[in-house]
## 1
Amino acid sequence: MSPILFWLFAFVMLIFGAAVVINRNPIASALSLVICFMGLSALFMSLDAFFIGIIQVLVYAGAVMVLFLFIIMLLDLRAEERRKINLVAVVGGAAVALALFVQIYSVVGQLSAANKPFPALASPKTDDVHSVGLLLFTNYNLPFQIIGVLVLVATIGVIVLSKRELR
Amino acid sequence: MVTLGHYLIVSGLLFTIGFAGVLLRRNIIIIFMSLELMLNAANLSLVAFSRFRLTAAGMPDYNAQVFVFFIITVAAAEVAVGLAIIVALYRARQTTHVEDVCSLKF
């Protein structure tokens, strides 16, 4: 992938990611998160991970964000914008986050592999759905079944939590 | 030329934005969205390492992509349960602001 496209999608992702945190309106935050995930999906595709990029769009930008928007509109969260900002907490939180980024930056800077370019693939045709599926049903068969049980438990848990009175 | 380090720094920045969101915001739904940002930042560095470290056949290491697949599945289940808890909280307290929910505060 050309560096121009990498920087374009990285900036789109980071700017809309920051907009999620900065926006006072929850609906604007949720829509920014959709654009952020689209940029992330483009970065996945730039790394030849087409399957992951597509399920990122389908699962996150599609299913998960619709759920978020549905809950935001169900709860009708407009009172948020009237609250005042606690300046000490904002400055403290930003300082801690900045310290975390400085640490990540210094660790990546010490990594000797970090300034090597990506090696070329043996063939440009990556057939990654086939390869991921093969691994999923051979080496990772047990984790895959456990994930299935987890999704079932989550579905039942959501139904139990959504009942009007728990008994 | 785009190197592995560029992807790792972009991923670290996305993680930092998510972390700042968890620390700065007081609306529980925005905190939840910031958690999703942090999970996705981890996914980006996993896929970058998968593309960087080729197998003997010259293909990306698909073990990392299977791991990303599992993370996306668990995150989707987590969002469903978390939002159900938020709806239950809103029914009980009529708020989604973390400072209004402090019964367990010492």
Note: The helical segments of chain B are 4-24, 28-52, 62-93.
## 2
Amino acid sequence: MGIKQKMFIYAPWVYHLHAGGCNGCDIELLAVLTPRFDVERFGIRLAPSPRHADILVVTGPVTKQIAPFLKRVYLQVPYPKVVVAIGACACSGGVFNDVEGEETYAILGGLDKMIPVDVYVPGCPPKPEAIIDGIIRGVRILGVKSCEVK
Amino acid sequence: MVSLNDVIYKLEHSLKPYFRIVKREFNGKHIYIETDRDKLPVAYDVLSEFDGRLIHVTASDMGLAGIKLFHVYAFDHIDRYSHVILYVMLSRENLKAPSLASKTYQVNWAERETSELLGINFESHPDPRHIFLPFEWPNPVESTESTSEKVLVDRGNLLPLGPYHPALIEGGYFKFSVDGEDIVDVDIKVGFNHRGIMKLAESRSYWRNVFLVSRICGICNICHVLAYLNAVERLFNVNVPLRAKYIRTLLAELNRIHSHVLWLGVAAELIGFRTVFMWSFKIREPIQDCIELITGNRVHMDAAIIGGSRVDLTNETINKVESKLREFKNQFTKLIDIIYDHSMFRSRTEDIGILKLADAKNLGVVGPTARASGWKIDVRKDSPYEAYGEDYTTWDIITDDGCDVFSRALVRLKETLTSVDICLQCLDTLKRVNGKIIVEEPINIIDGETIGKSEAPRGELFYYIYSDGSIIPHTVRIRTPSYRNIAALKHMLVGYRLSDAPIIIGSVDPCYSCTDRVIIVDVYKGKCLTINYNEFINFAKRGFVNVS
């Protein structure tokens, strides 16, 4: 492993972005950061700004009002970046899709309609263990992407 | 003591000749009255004289008959279960109604919402902008003189907070007008989390809607379900078995405990008290374990369904939950003692964000925010549902006269202990009461309309359901507690310092999701700086912003 890769995968910083979900995933993500699950032992911590982040963690079905802001935050994250979609809503729109499975007037229905997604963590909400697993997978992808950095 | 009959007598007298009692429901406690649109302001004057709470203004599309506009008044804090529902039929050719927003700020948002969703034109509304619809929605309404950005800038420097906002204090978009450090005026924009749930609920069956309304809020999910079921079960005459009532109450109270402890952690973090943030999350985990043990999931319980409960508790589970709750109570009492005597916590929260009782009544705040202003309202006592009545469990409403952020914290902390007591009583009864947990008779769908309420951790939750006899509800209308509390923030924030803004916003426990970023507009240089919400929090902790 080169020094570049080590730099990225030993201390990945996460930026949490709420894109209109129900808060279920958000409180589970918060539980991940607190004493019982303590994700800081992997060197993962919340970044104060998207400009400092390596991993963008997004929850919620992406409402139309939040979509322009989501795009702006995504563009602010420096390369190499990894996007982790947490929860059924962020993966596909979940329960907020209408009866035919199509998005409604207020949501985009899934994060991948807006920005490229690297890891999907399904569940309503996913358990903290699943979220940690998703972020760790994101870290591996980050390691691969970091090799491309010149 | 005023009774509902006095109110109706006085109302009939002042609304003549446009007064017709359409029906009395629920032992005559829910009264539906049809009147004329011009009489609505008069009705408001009469009913607010009797201390009636105007809990919602909403409307329902009745097809060819036109649009039905409701004013729902609650009198349940005076006379148990009492509600007066005033409605007027508006024809599609003339969709106009008088606005009450200039009389009372509490219906400002409700009228804007009704106006944008059903096209009713509220005459002389002070602020007819869109509230929930996306920015690019056709025909945006221009902001009026009083709220335009220019006025905010004229009164001081403009400092918008949002719309990106952190995990838990999901807020909207606050545009502060500041003079130095002091907040002069504030404009609140919400709706970033608008997912069109009321529309979705009108395209799914009653049974599937249970799981949809649960997803309105992950933190108070079962309270939404209970308010929805309260309405649906009353409409379909379903008698829930006793054991199911206790199970639902137990789960709702576990939910309240975890919500309040979560709030404590977040509030502590907002004032830079990170130790309490970690502690409260640590002692909250056993409660999550209890919920997982009973329902199988840590957050969304999906345990209550129409006619009863989906899950049952074995004696083994009851004992485990009981021991965990007792341990939680010990730990939490210690935490309360620490917070109560902590000089830093007190100095950051005392005499901040004051909301006097008269203002609280005028703004129509609900839940712990209202109770911290000394207003004794609680749906669990006023309109008892599930096992909250005196026949089932014994407990008291907790109020405080401090009116500031500290008393809001105190009310929530004490309420958590009350909730633990209610849980223990429920568990005790569940050991003795055996029997069915769900009705076995088939449920018949009956046409009609009804309202349902429950007490979410943040306050009174209101549902209106209109059934036309099909398997899909014709109309579902929801008013969440934060709807009122966030609107009241405008009153609480003005006059305090910018560094107190996060804890004041946090003190009402706002629950509509969003956002994490602050945009600072420097009006003198005309440039726009974007700083992150956490930097804003740091600013709140340090007292200055590093905008290099």
Note: Residues 151-192+486-542 of chain B form one domain.
